């Protein structure tokens, strides 16, 4: 066990993917995670993690067996009326050294939480406190003010409190909220048994001879995405539509969507797409927001990570992956023995490593969703994939970009 003198007191705000990944990454220190919710509500959605993120999580000990996530072996894009635009084999393990995983969100959260809080001989488990809302933070003194009236001080505060971050205003000096993008996303999980009466649709769960895969049906202003998760016992659906067709669209994981409106938005799509959507028995609706890069992610003892730092549109499925990369960068810049006095400088190094890449992916995601802004380069999907997936961690990035660790 490292000595107490070598360890930092780290407080993480938020137990989403970013917060739990940080608790895993910084386990060598004393880590307290403060989460406002009771972490009881099951989020009915999946999240895919590209090899850039799964590679990091596997190094932390992520168990593929526990996760039970199918992998992407092909990517199949179709038109709204059904014909194939392209179907390409995906060799993520061979090309990028790690799998592209199709996870149930609950499985991924549970696995990150297990890694953060399990007993081991070398490090102390992180403590996750639920029903602990942080109201305000003071970046200079490292003080957190909780809704209960309690105050806590820390050497480092990692603000992983999502798109509505309370820490963001304290860091950037103004409240810069993400703007509606004009699109909303329905999300649903359809159980395998819902396909009993039409078994030919099981191919969207089971894939083909090459294995499981990722399917999309694309129209100009809307798209449907379908892929299996949780051992292919569920088909995950993400259906992106113009906001005007999705009444009461809110930005919250648990806001319910209308199945009638969902079906109406895809009434011109091919039979398979409609047959899949008819099997949705409840769905959530999320208003998609876009954000330009913040002027900074860090001030004093606080750093913003994940959606709090770089909320992005989901059209490339990289928001969660970028959060995992942020956490790994903190692991690299805050080794045991880091002195409390050096924290503000160390957090600036973390930002220096992560800012360019996360901002570029944020921009790519916006461009893919809404089209490039005037003067912006049009990047094709192959280029996106190579850039997104070909990341080998903060140390390699720092070395190749002349950043002193
Ligand atoms: C429709 C959709 C599909 C997506 N698909 C993908 C995908 O396939 N792959 C991918 O990588 N990404 C995807 N994303 C993006 C991804 O979901 C997010 O980037 C990721 O969940 C962000 O994690 P986070 O931990 O930063 O934030 P969050 O998940 O928002 O977690 C923040 C946590 O902080 C807590 N919290 C907030 N405020 C406080 C407070 N004041 N005090 C204490 N706790 C607080 C919240 O309760 C929450 O638990 C998708 C997003 C959407 C909307």
UniProtKB/TrEMBL annotation:
<dbReference type="GO" id="GO:0071949">
    <property type="term" value="F:FAD binding"/>
</dbReference>
<dbReference type="Pfam" id="PF01494">
    <property type="entry name" value="FAD_binding_3"/>
</dbReference>
<dbReference type="InterPro" id="IPR036188">
    <property type="entry name" value="FAD/NAD-bd_sf"/>
</dbReference>
<keyword id="KW-0560">Oxidoreductase</keyword>
<keyword id="KW-0274">FAD</keyword>
<feature type="domain" description="FAD-binding">
    <location>
        <begin position="8"/>
        <end position="352"/>
    </location>
</feature>
<dbReference type="InterPro" id="IPR002938">
    <property type="entry name" value="FAD-bd"/>
</dbReference>
<keyword id="KW-0285">Flavoprotein</keyword>
<dbReference type="InterPro" id="IPR050493">
    <property type="entry name" value="FAD-dep_Monooxygenase_BioMet"/>
</dbReference>
<comment type="similarity">
    <text>Belongs to the paxM FAD-dependent monooxygenase family.</text>
</comment>
<dbReference type="GO" id="GO:0004497">
    <property type="term" value="F:monooxygenase activity"/>
</dbReference>
<protein>
    <recommendedName>
        <fullName>FAD-binding domain-containing protein</fullName>
    </recommendedName>
</protein>
<keyword id="KW-0503">Monooxygenase</keyword>
């Amino acid at each position: 066990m490292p000595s107490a003198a070598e360890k930092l007191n780290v407080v993480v705000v938020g137990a989403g993917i970013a917060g739990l990944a940080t608790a895993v990454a910084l386990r060598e220190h004393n880590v307290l995670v403060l989460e406002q919710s009771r972490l009881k509500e099951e989020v009915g959605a999946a999240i895919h993690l590209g090899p850039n993120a799964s590679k990091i999580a596997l190094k932390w000990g992520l168990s593929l067996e526990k996760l039970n996530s199918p992998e992407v072996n092909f990517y199949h894009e179709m038109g709204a009326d059904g014909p194939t635009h392209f179907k390409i084999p995906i060799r993520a393990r061979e090309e990028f050294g790690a799998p592209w995983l199709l996870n149930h969100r609950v499985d991924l959260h549970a696995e990150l939480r297990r890694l953060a809080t399990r007993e081991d001989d070398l490090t102390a488990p992180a403590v996750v406190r639920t029903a602990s809302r942080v109201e305000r933070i003071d970046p200079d003194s490292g003080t957190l003010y909780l809704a209960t009236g309690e105050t806590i001080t820390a050497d480092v505060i990692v603000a992983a409190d999502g798109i509505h971050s309370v820490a963001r205003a304290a860091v950037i000096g103004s409240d810069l909220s993400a703007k509606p993008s004009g699109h909303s996303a329905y999300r649903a999980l359809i159980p395998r048994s819902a396909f009993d009466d039409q078994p030919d649709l099981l191919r969207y769960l089971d894939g083909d001879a090459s294995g499981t895969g990722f399917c999309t049906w694309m129209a100009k202003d809307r798209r449907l995405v379908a892929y299996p998760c949780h051992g292919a016992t569920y088909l995950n659906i993400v259906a992106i539509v113009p906001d005007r067709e999705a009444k009461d669209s809110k930005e919250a994981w648990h806001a319910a969507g209308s199945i009638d409106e969902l079906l109406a938005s895809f009434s011109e799509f091919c039979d398979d797409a409609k047959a899949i959507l008819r099997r949705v028995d409840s769905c959530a609706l999320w208003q998609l927001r876009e954000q330009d890069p913040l002027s900074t992610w860090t001030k004093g003892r606080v750093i913003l990570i994940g959606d709090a730092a770089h909320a992005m549109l989901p059209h490339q499925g990289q928001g969660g992956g970028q959060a995992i990369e942020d956490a790994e960068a903190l692991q690299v810049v805050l080794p045991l023995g880091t002195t409390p006095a050096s924290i503000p400088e160390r957090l600036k190094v973390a930002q220096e490593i992560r800012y360019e890449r996360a901002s570029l992916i944020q921009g790519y995601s916006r461009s893919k969703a809404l089209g490039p802004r005037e003067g912006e380069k049009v990047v094709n999907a192959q280029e996106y994939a190579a850039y997104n997936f070909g990341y080998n961690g903060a140390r390699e990035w720092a070395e190749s970009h002349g950043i002193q660790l």
